[in-house]
Write a structure and sequence with these properties.
The chain has 2 domains: 5-167 and 349-369, Rossmann fold; 171-347, Glycogen Phosphorylase B (Rossmann fold, 3-Layer(aba) Sandwich), CATH 3.40.50.2000. The chain is 39% helix and 16% strand. The protein has helices spanning 18-29, 48-53, 68-81, 95-104, 123-133, 136-139, 148-154, 177-186, 208-221, 236-245, 261-267, 282-289, 319-327, 339-344, 350-369; strands at 5-10, 35-41, 58-60, 86-89, 109-114, 142-145, 162-163, 194-199, 225-230, 252-256, 270-273, 294-297, 311-314. The longest helix has 20 residues, at 350-369. The two termini are 25 Å apart. Residues 372-380 have low confidence and may be disordered.
Length: 380
């Protein structure tokens, strides 16, 4: 076995989304003398330069938006010219295309990884994805998911799969009062302001419209309240217009994509996540590591709770309760670093997850070299 073993990760791009951030957390912590990450993408991403600095290669093929036939042909050409031993696909149901073509090319280890519980797009797009997703069972040699719910969604015809928890570089997120002061000063905030925050892509599943509505009611009762939304996406202009119509555009901060996520979390007083569905939120784990009280939609998996007493799960049907929780948040946000946080976050430590994944890759490749069965179903 030639080392480092190069693993090809198939993604749309390497922007600062949940799955992509998880991959980078693993990449930074994995032993790159043993395993190297390369990426098959269709678009440029925020992490591209760091990937290159870490020794990774970035390959580009045309997006599936250019056409079904052209996309499959591009995959065939790619795998013919790049004989990888391990392909790890992170495109949910569209991973069926990747893994099918990898199988035809003779790639021995083919991993499907679920990061969600729902397909996005129009009804026609969802039907197309469903058909492609049916290829995964026969095209993948191994299956992974970030939670049990995500696994059940992508692998409905399989009884079990490997669960690899989302993980972070936890020490980066432990509360830092100096960073808090620096960011709040830059935002024009004093200690008297209460800053509610959200980190995530601005698209429909994150349900920012609901959060902005709830904040508007909170602001009417507390003029020192502020809301910061860190991230970008297709709904940014609509959300900005919503804030203007509610006359809160002066107190809602659209911060865009930021590299300094820990510092922005330190600046917040509470974290709000009103998602319609969510299994992959690295942000929720990061917020807890930063000691933030978290108000979460009850549609978010409880697998993300580190057990430090920071999470409140609220129904989206009960708007008034969301507002009451937000107004009450100051009295519950005094201590930002506790032994409970340090203990609970260990289960989401990127260095431990990277070692598990590294051993997984090497063992599966070794088994393949010895002609053993590639099946693995476990909880790691």
């Amino acid at each position: 076995m030639i080392k480092p073993v190069r693993v090809l990760h198939a993604v749309v791009n390497m922007n600062r989304g949940g799955a992509e951030t998880l991959l980078m957390n693993l990449y930074r912590n994995i032993n790159r003398n043993e395993v190297q990450f390369d990426f098959l993408t269709s678009f440029e991403g925020d992490y591209d330069e760091e990937i290159k600095q870490l020794g990774g290669k970035i390959h580009r093929i045309p997006s599936i938006r250019k056409g079904h036939t052209k996309y499959l042909r591009s995959l065939d050409y790619f795998f013919k010219d790049h004989p990888y031993q391990i392909v790890h696909a992170h495109m949910d149901k569209l991973s069926g295309h990747i893994l099918e073509r990898a199988k035809l090319a003779g790639v021995p280890v083919r991993i499907a990884h679920s990061h969600s519980t729902m397909s996005e797009g129009s009804p026609a797009v969802k039907i197309y994805k469903w058909k492609v997703g049916r290829k995964i069972k026969d095209s993948s040699t191994h299956q992974m998911a970030c939670s049990k719910e995500a696994g059940k969604w992508l692998f409905p015809r399989l009884s079990s799969y490997t669960v690899l928890k989302n993980s972070i570089q936890s020490r980066d997120f432990f509360f830092d009062p100096m960073q808090r002061h620096r960011i709040r000063t830059a935002l024009g905030l004093t200690d008297q302001h209460i800053l509610y925050g959200h980190v995530g892509r601005l698209h429909k599943p994150k349900n920012h419209k609901y959060l902005i509505e709830r904040f508007a009611s909170v602001f009417q009762q507390n003029k020192r309240a502020r809301l910061i939304i860190v991230g970008d996406g297709p709904l940014k202009e609509k959300l900005q217009l919503q804030a203007e119509k509610l006359r809160i555009d002066k107190v809602v901060i659209f911060a865009g994509v930021r590299k300094e996520i820990p510092a922005f979390l330190h600046a917040m007083d509470a974290f709000c996540y009103s998602s319609l569905h969510e299994v992959n939120s690295i942000s929720v784990i990061e917020a807890q590591a930063a000691g933030l009280p978290c108000m979460l939609s009850d549609r978010i998996t409880k697998d993300l709770d580190i057990g430090a007493g920071l999470c409140s799960y609220l129904s989206l049907k009960h708007s008034r309760r969301w507002e009451d929780e937000m107004l009450d948040i100051r009295s519950r946000s005094a201590e930002r670093y506790t032994p409970q946080i340090e203990k609970g976050i260990k289960a989401f430590n990127a260095s431990a997850s990277a070692l598990l994944l590294q051993n997984f890759y090497l063992s599966k490749l070794k088994e393949n070299c010895h002609g053993k069965d590639n099946s693995i179903y476990s909880y790691v």
